[in-house]
From TrEMBL:
Positions of the Helix-hairpin-helix DNA-binding motif class domain: 9-28, 41-60
Organism: Chitinophaga costaii
GO molecular-function term, one example from the UniProt record: DNA binding
Family note: Belongs to the DprA/Smf family.
GO biological process, one term: DNA-mediated transformation
InterPro entries the record matches: DisA/LigA_HHH, DprA, DprA_WH, DrpA_SLOG, Hlx-hairpin-Hlx_DNA-bd_motif, RuvA_2-like, WH-like_DNA-bd_sf
Lineage: Bacteria, Pseudomonadati, Bacteroidota, Chitinophagia, Chitinophagales
Record protein name field: DNA processing protein
Amino acid sequence: MTQELIHQIALTQIPHIGDVLAKRLLEHFGSASNLFQARLHELASIPEVGKFRALQIKQFNNFARVEAEISFITRYQIQPVFYTDAAYPERLRQCHDAPVLLYQKGDAALQAPRMLSVIGTRKPSRHGREVCETLIAGLAPMGITIVSGMAYGVDIIAHQAALANGLPTIGILGHGLDRMYPAIHKDVAREMIQQNGALLTDFISGTQPDKQNFPKRNRIVAGISDATLVIETGLRGGSLITADIAFSYNRDVLAVPGRINDELSAGCHALIRNNKAQLVTGAADIIDALGWDLPTVKSVVQPSLFLTLNHIEKAVVALFNDEAPRHIDEIFRNSTLPNSEVASAVLSLEMQCVIKSLPGQYYTMA
């Protein structure tokens, strides 16, 4: 236990000192320990602090709670990540209201080269579920990290799809790490940690999943990734708020369209109509929008390459029995395999230059 860690946690527990002001104080004093050692008049002289907040800092005395939190994170191997630490996620650090302190359970890289937040309604349609699973499967060869909020619906589907495709996934919580909400997602959370994922929160243990906590969680979801993908959401869905936050952070927002009269897609349509989100119809759209380069491969396919294809890839290649282009929907229809597996195979075959993509989501043999 170090004095600096004690003061870092204590800083987050002072009433009326939010993340934005806390960071200004850190910039002024250089460290949390220096901040707590400052004189009252030094604190009060800082703009937006004043005498009232300066007194809040000087009178803070709940260090027993801070030490209890340190005991908790030590016992359960939880890593505190402070705003000034090198391990703090750089994408999130760029956001003006980023949390001063994060608590991480699990080994996921918070600065992975490719990170995508996936959000949407808590009551998705069957089509929405399939779209979420298919898109993540299609992105699997890119080795991305999937981020979401562990909630019902699209959130947990995204986490499960990431696990199914061997991708690390990070769950952002609106409560402390001593509980899981919803409790039914405990097993998924354990599997995420076991498969190089993580749970992440800025709330200390004992914090309940109260309604007012989730806007803070949503800011992390929006800020920690390269982009936010909206699968299905209504006009009043909480996902729209998260998408707006991502847009305000100058992050890419992506949205999947639905039927024109589908209320579950009305929020996605609004984002696209208002030029806040790019339209997504497949994994390739996401890759293109974010400028994610596919691994370099040879431009000429040798016959021996086909010996290395797995059975799913071979089944997809067999659908190209002439030189005519095939639309992705036709490939899905003609295959007996799940769409998610076919989508992943199509992207893998494209990376290997076995097939090539054409405008309008058509594919042909390379």
